[in-house]
Amino acid sequence: MIWFIQRLFGFKKTKEGILNDGLKISLQWGRNWMQPIQDRLKRRFPKLTKEELDFYDSICRKTRDNGLNFIFDRLKEACDNDLLLDKGRFRSDFNKMMLDESGWITRSNLNRIFSQGMYYAWKDGYDECLK
């Protein structure tokens, strides 16, 4: 809703704001899951050029994939080696990695990536390696 008001009154979003909107779009469940975001981002920010849309798509995909891969790869490795990881430490390591790589990410997007990554880890049985 905020994006609608901003568009209506001509407010400009910062680069970080557009990245977070794009990341949120890239994390939406449904038929657009893991799909390019340019068209959906263009509807929110019609003045963005094709090059800018491609840039935001690339950064958002990289950020999303880095987070999901961090969770899956770490838990898979732990399970494959019969190790137990501390849940709190695991979450702290995830947050640090994400914020170090993408300091612009909001808390809600950070939580969303973590939740989705943990869902897929649980689905594959890798959550059993957390204590």
Give a structural overview.
The chain is mainly alpha-helical. It has one domain (2-129). Helix content is 69%, strand content 0%. It is built from six helices and no strands. The protein has helices at residues 2-9, 15-26, 38-44, 50-80, 87-101, 107-123. It is elongated and about 50 Å long.
Class by SSE composition: mainly alpha
Query: What does the main sheet amount to?
Result: none
Mean pLDDT value = 89
Q: How many helices?
A: 6
Poorly predicted runs: none
In percent terms, what proportion of residues is strand?
Answer: under 5%
Number of discrete domains: 1
Give the SSE string: HHHHHH
N-C termini distance: 39 Å
User: Radius of gyration in whole Å, from Cα?
Assistant: 17 Å
Question: What is the number of E strands?
Answer: 0
Percent helix, as a range, is: 55-70%
Q: Keywords for this structure?
A:
131 residues, mainly alpha, 6 helices
Strand and helix layout:
Elements: H1 2-9, H2 15-26, H3 38-44, H4 50-80, H5 87-101, H6 107-123
Explain briefly what this protein structure is.
With 131 residues, the protein is an all-alpha fold.
